[in-house]
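Hey, I'm writing a tutorial for new members on how sequence and structure tokens pair up, and I'd like a real worked example in the thread rather than a made-up one. If someone can provide the structure for the chain below, I'll link this post from the tutorial.
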Amino acid sequence: MQKPINLILSKLKNVKGSSSRGKWTARCPAHNDQKNSLSISEGHDGRVLLNCFAGCHNEHIVESIGLKMSDLFEKNEQIASKKKNWNITKIYNYMDENHQLLYQVCRTDEKQFPQRTPDGNGGWSWGLNGQKTVPYQLPRLLEGIKGGYPIFLVEGEKDVERLISAELYATTAPMGANKWKSHYNEYFRNADLIILPDNDAPGLQHAEHIAVQLENITKRIRILQLPRLQEKQDVSDWLDLGNTPSQLLSLSEETKLFTSKKVDSKKQYPGYTLLEEEETPQTGPALPHFPLEVFPKSVQEIVRAYADSVSASPDIAAVQALSIVSLALGPDWRIRAVSFERASRLWLATVAPPGSGKTPVMIAMMKPVEKREQYFRALWERQVKDWKAHRSKDETEEKPIQSHAKTDDFNIDALINALSASPKGIILDIDELIQLFGLIEQTQTGGKGRSRGAFLSMWSGKPVSVIRKKSDDLYVNNPYVIVSGGTQPDTLGTLGLSQGDGMAQRFLWSHPSSPEKSVGYGPNIPSCIKKVWEDTIYNAFDSMNGIAEATPEAIAFGDQAIRDFNQRKNEMNRIGLSAFAAMYAKAPDHLHRLIACLHGMDCLFDGKSQEEVGLKTFERAFKLTEYFLAHSKYCITLAMSGRSQEASFQELRSKDQTLFSALQKIVEIEGEQTLSTSEWVKCLNKHSQLKTNAVRLGKSFKRLSELPLPGLFLERPNGKNKKGSFWKVSISK
């Protein structure tokens, strides 16, 4: 079978380069290329990487040579063959807290590190297959923390094994540097931690990124840069130089404690940004607090108790409550407004920095879902046992698929496979949304897969399917997926939120502020509150009890509620605010789903009957919609402005700052102005001698209109802007 790189090169003209370098150039077939504008290379996984410096999209390039996007990637048969030919030189077992094998990381002679999980039949299945990742040597890590021993965090299982052989306690995160997941943090609570980075810039950046997250979790934390190492060397190389474990412990004790205040804020480390000590953080516009009064009183107390247990913002717990209640309600709980119905299918994102308590709150409130997941696991294990016993009699019977209540595996085929056995729905619990958006962005920009389209379908409840060669295809008619995810403010700029395709706008974003004060519950959640939350949610999953029982008919709006709903919907549809238009276009749908969630929450926690939706429920949902619109707009603004944090307006590039100052001066002298871009060019030249043209100015206006400008407001006026050339500039109130 021909390799993808050879197939692509055979279709191109004027190919230059060599296989020894692994890089080529050629004429781009998607435009009239007079010089080699197309760069071609081969990825480590065999995929073909294309880049046209004239800006042609990969889809157009591939189509121009009579191929498909799938031709850029190795076929399943090639991948399977490669896996069979892997020469595995070392196997690392990853265990859970109870020494149960979760998965293996295999080292090959080509220094690849594929993962595999037990297939339940004495063999292996390549990939993580939905298995949650944990730090390496987790049981020994927890043992070391409990005993008060120093814990060494290194890069790679090889270094862990080397330190363990010296009777030290060590661990690493799977999949290498920059793969740290926030759910690892809790494993290191009260640890005496020493991070040993590899001797290079990425190694130090990775170490400081982790240290910032763990600073308030560990007992103490230090970053030890080992002396006399060459570039890219590590602790194993240091020991090979004749150094001893005793010297390593001595150097650790001599190393100063890590403090995030001393990290160079001018370096842009992955995952966070720090301000200079003398700077005052800019928090941007005042965002509304989560309107807890929209919840039943019992849920209000639950939210406050869970948030207060880790000194987190109640917004974090409230958003998590919405996601879990939505899952418990399931796809059969529907609200009808005139001719269309909606289930409580919510996708929620919380933006909060490390140390905000986001992860502990989300984990604690997820307990009833975890309990349901454990039930499904035990049930599946019994089914597999029966299947094995009867397989000799009926070899055509397929292995049972496990039902799920939650997963953190957003591989689209694995997710659809899980949904096919989980008609009540699944919550996609994602530590860092950057992973999900990275997968979707890869698909949009020419990468392998169809994740974007499938996720859009799942948000709408449209059918999704998987075509399988060796068994029956999978088809899910009404996929019910709730997404609950988090990210840090500093990663917003990398999520692609400014794209106008509506993916980001399908999420309800929350950017909570720090909690103003404790509400008095303290670190221990009262058992009565915990019991109400966990029992109510868990019981709702039972299709024979509670609200999750399939409703034969969708619950209708009352007359007054439907009138107000239509009025608000029309108002939202009239709003068009540049890149926010897609967000407002989704607002009526979000409102409908929030109505379904709040009405179901009333029935779950207050025991209200499943009657028609009244005006009060509608008003509560609308208040919640306004909260999410304000936060979503702010998050998308930050992402579009290219800023990693709530930075000040002074971070704008100098040309935009000059334009901003000139516009302020004009408005102060002339008052509010509505002019075409050509007229604005003349006006700016007259008042400030600012040299530009209409095209450049239009782009600058668009950038500025998407930012929260201090004292100035830019917008496209209604009526006289058919060609999009008029801009209104006024003093903001």
